[in-house]
Amino acid sequence: MNKTIIFSLLITITTTLSHGMELVLHNEDMLSHITEQICNVHNCAIKQTRNNILQFSITDQKLREYYNREKTHQNIVRHVALHNKMSDAKVAYDFRYNEIVDTIDYLFYGYTGNFKTNPKDFTEYIKDQWYLNSTSSLENIGQETLLLRAIRKNDYARAKIVIAAEIDCNSVRCTDNPIALISDHANKTTLQQEDCITVITLLLTKNIHPDSRTHWLDYTLLHHAAFFSNKDLAHLLLQYGANPYLAENRKCLTALDMEKGEPKGWLKEMHDTMIKNNELKTVHSPTDQSAQK
Known about the structure:
CATH architecture of the domain at 177-293: Alpha Horseshoe
CATH topology of the domain at 177-293: Serine Threonine Protein Phosphatase 5, Tetratricopeptide repeat
Order of helices and strands: HHHHHHHHHHEEHHHHHHHH
CATH class of the domain at 177-293: Mainly Alpha
Mean pLDDT: 88
Strand order of the largest sheet: 1-2
Structural class: mainly alpha
Number of strands: 2
Radius of gyration: 25 Å
Helix content: 40-55%
Low-confidence stretches: none
């Protein structure tokens, strides 16, 4: 094993010499700390880290048992993935942790080809917070969560399930924001679906900004609600602070400019009435053009 690794391990182990090596082998917190040190020695470089963990694990039967556990594999994958800004799926694949790879493939894509027996139900897997908040790779975008995957597939019933399970709705590991993604995929039919409205409501209650958008040139959800004359959605978005004066930057159109339906001016009237009734979390004026990305 690399001399640097041996030195790092000796530093950790010597703090417990008074209790003996046996204590280290039975102390999972200590083993977790040692594992992190092994990962960090080569700056979480995958090939070197994988080989060094393998070499360390074969030195003792208890170590072999510890490093064969799925939970240990999860901890290694997440540590390396966060350090390298990679998806959990990619790191698990590179470490050859097939059980994790197969489970993520099933949760994200429904693929069951590598399971020796029938997989558990989706809801059973996401009881494990690690899998609930796992990430997969998305070409040209980076990483996506189970929530973002569900929104991309217009599967708002699945989105409701993962939100109810307490998924991290605004994961810093992903460039996409769930409300911005809903806006990107918005159409009249989708925005009228009960499950979609429920998901938007849940996201707003978790402080995801109603004016979130992928790019400052894009439309917000309120633009879409106004254009599709979706008054219930418009009311919901305004209630949580959506800005009707915020313009998209292709033609500089606000939600008020894009309003369709009868009576003419319904969005402005709705906004003014909500101000009068103190229903708004944030009151915007015509001069408020601050963009929320």
